[in-house]
Amino acid sequence: MSSTKTTEMENVVVRFSGDSGDGMQLTGTLFSNLSAILGNEISTFPDFPSEIRAPQGTLGGVSGFQVHLGAGKIYTPGDDADVLVAMNPAALKVNAKGVKKGGVIIFDEDSFRKSDMEKAGFKTENPFEELNISETIQLIPAPLSSMTQSSLEGFEMDAKSILRSKNMFALGLICWLFNRPVDQAVHFLENKFSKKKSILEANIKVLTDGFNYGGNLHLSVNTYKIEKSHDVPKGKYTSINGNKATAWGLIAASKKAGLELFLGSYPITPATDIMQELALRKDLGVKVIQAEDEIAGITTALGASFAGALAATSTSGPGLALKSEAIGLAVMAELPIVIVDVMRGGPSTGLPTKTEQTDLLQALYGRNGESPAVVIAASTPADCFHYAFMASKIALEHMTPVILLTDAFIGNGTSLWKLPKLAELPEIKPNFAQPGMEGLNVTARNEETKARYWSVPGIEGFNHRNGGLEKDYNSGSISTDAANHQKMVDTRQAKVDYISNVIPELVVEGDASADLLVIGWGTTHGHLMTAVNSLNKKGKKVALAHFNYINPLPKNTEEVIKKFKKVIVCELNNGQFATYLRSKVPGEYLQYNKVQGQPFTVSEIESHLETIL
Amino acid sequence: METKTIQYTLKDFKSDQAVRWCPGCGDYAVLNTMQKVMAELGVAPHNTAVISGIGCSSRLPYYVSGYGFHSIHGRGAAVATGVKVANPALTVWQITGDGDCLAIGGNHFIHSVRRNIDINVLLFNNQIYGLTKGQYSPTTKKGYVTKSSPFGTIERPFRPAELTFGAGGTFFGRVLDVDLKSSHMTMMAAAQHKGTSIVETLVNCVIFNDGAHNWLSEKATRYDRVIILEHGKPMIFGANNDKGLVLDGFNLKVVTIGENGITENDILVHDAKCQDSTLQLKLALMEGPDFPVALGVIRNVEAESYDEAVVNQIHEIQAKSKIKTFDDLIDSCEQWEM
Fold this sequence. Notes:
The structure holds two protein chains of two kinds.
Chain A (H helix, E strand, L loop, with lengths): L4 E5 L1 E9 L4 H14 L3 E7 L14 E9 L10 E6 L2 H7 L3 E10 L5 H6 L7 H4 L7 E5 L1 H8 L7 H6 L1 H12 L5 H10 L4 H19 L6 E5 L9 E6 H16 L3 E5 L6 H9 L6 E4 L3 H13 L3 E6 L1 H17 L3 E7 L16 H6 L8 E4 L5 H16 L2 E7 H5 L1 E5 L46 E3 L14 H17 L9 E3 L5 E6 L3 H13 L4 E6 L1 E3 L5 H6 L3 E6 L4 H9 L5 E4 L8 H11 L1
Parallel strand pairs in A: 1-8, 2-5, 5-6, 6-7, 10-11, 10-12, 12-13, 13-15, 14-15, 19-20, 19-22, 22-23
Antiparallel strand pairs in A: 2-4, 3-4, 9-16, 14-21, 18-20
Chain B lengths: L26 H15 L6 E5 L14 E4 L5 H11 L4 E7 H7 L1 H10 L3 E7 L34 H7 L4 E6 L3 H13 L4 E6 L11 H4 L4 H4 E4 L6 E2 L5 E6 L2 E6 L21 H7 L8 E8 L5 H15 L5 H6 L4 E2 L1
Parallel strand pairs in B: 1-2, 1-3, 3-4, 4-6, 5-6, 7-11
Antiparallel strand pairs in B: 5-11, 8-9, 9-10
């Protein structure tokens, strides 16, 4: 007998988990997007292995996709899941610990044969007991594989392709569980498979059958109802991942500056999507070179910058190391370039698909000589657009390399994005040499900002030679003069320092009258903000100062920090920003650090902060 | 781009910087010939970009009027690639040496050749590291004693032609610093070639490897030891123009005209435009004392250049795509009102 009841919830976390070939990323993305269309805020986090196809059914091959959706403000993809979909025993084993008390686990009972369980390393025939899964968690066995097979009976598909559609059955079931009509999912599928009619029909059939199967489940299952969000400003939205947002931010900046966009890059996880996204945009005139190596990625871009393009390169930590010398050349030649570092676990090859904030000191200091570069960091998938745009604006207006730090978490994760119009974005005025300045030297600069004037080949009257050797401040010729070198070093530093005049001031969020200030930077904003809000709600006084501009720091940094009695810097490394802050604003900083290749969880931050309040 | 509207002279391509190579360095002659070719090409200095890496020869951009970029060790080919792709209207020259190009920059070298970017590369080969004061390079002859090979190198040298041909090069020429006429002809052909033009420039380092090319460059014997190849002309050489090359099975053979019934008609005619590079490679790899060393234009074939292909593909996609502006791109994504 069906005795379904519906629970209303403000926020819910769903985790889809299966083999890396099970289509969990697609399933998760479709469910997130249709939730957003129905008016929810969303934040997602794909968590996949670095192996493309690890042996089927093994722990190493488990691929997950988590989405946090709700009526309230959503800052993170959530800690533990309310609902886990496990396509096989390995997925169950990897994710069982991350399910909330009172949550639900839906699993494909057809994939829990003895051999499947052995592959996942279970020793008994009862994996649930073996994993010591809380009795409060409701288990929903569903024969996803066999139901998919019977759903597609009569379709002219091979057995393998039929079985591959079982993710759509799971999606249908989840849509039923969350009272989501499948029409919207059908619409997404129509877009995705518009050129593959047979796959489209099969997917729709399985999806619909999955939904109906839920309705016929003779189980006492809670379904969920989540209200629309009322916090978001009205407007048109999409969901976007950080890498795509970064690519689009660069495009927007090139259009705003009236320049061609040039990307020189080399494939590297988790940054490759930026190159791939830009390679698609030939219609907007973007020039992309997939270079022979990381060094050629940045040096082709520097050549393009010398020739007058908005130049960028995209990479991850090991690639940033390889680009160090060329970044130094950009510092010395005072050429604009944006270097995007989508950080991953290190050192060396490290954890290619996992997230960390461990490249900060490399970005700040990892070059020979006195070599100041601008460093900024994005904090959500959607704001990668804004910071890629601002990185370009600063590079072009101040004639300096700008390193933009994102990471695997926000690069691959998605969040809601209010769609911009080009006209609404800030103006970008590259620091070009102007008509009338003919004959100026390669080192001639704006006296106030210290930004070198940019003159590019093809224009008469500005012939010059640039390069990596030190130049004379006045004539632009190469020079080894002692006093001149000091002056040039100081000038390049002053140019970067000046940028603190054009970036926004540091903002204090949460309870500004608190004694305790939490400091974070970049990708951790969501987790830190959620923890601080939650403590404030409990009546505990704590504030948050979150940095996106790292070098130079916002002008009021010292003023903000000195207002608080106790300061704790939370970051996904062993204390790199804390070290940097100690050198810039001396004082006592507590630290909360984690280097596990995973983002913070809100609960771990909250409980740690409670111990020091 | 301005062409031929103004007559330029060598002086138009001299910068205000004093040239600071060692007295007697072979680079002077190459610079001079290059500037002559630049003037005759008729491309304005401001439409000319000269890019280099690091090394003695890589100082060259400072001495040429126009736009120059003295980059970092080995990366000149990549920088030049970026310059040309960003602005295909520019005439781009790359200046590099045997260390810069074939050791630290080897990867960029083969890939720029493979892509066939329209740049003119002068590869100064003096078989030594000069600027770091005398270490062996990838082209140093095996057994040669240098500061870093005090008992003679044990390494087998690269032959730049082999790398160029192996990477699918469309242009390979070779010049000798002291042989001005053939240098001029070869550099001019390189500049006019669309695609990556590699000109191996045999230069003498008077300080660290003096006389490396003496076997070729001695005036009295030079024309018995080199052959200057020109497309469509018979492969005849020798101080008395009496020697020539013929095929003997799959191999080349030196013959004397007038001996053993050999006439001028028996001599091979050079085909630099032949897509099949087999014979051109054989010519490029000839070495003394049994063979003359080939100078001149050894290979010069047509193929789409990379920079051209980049632009063509953009135009093709732009003609088809509905996305014309950034706002169109935004409109194209799945979106909803909230």
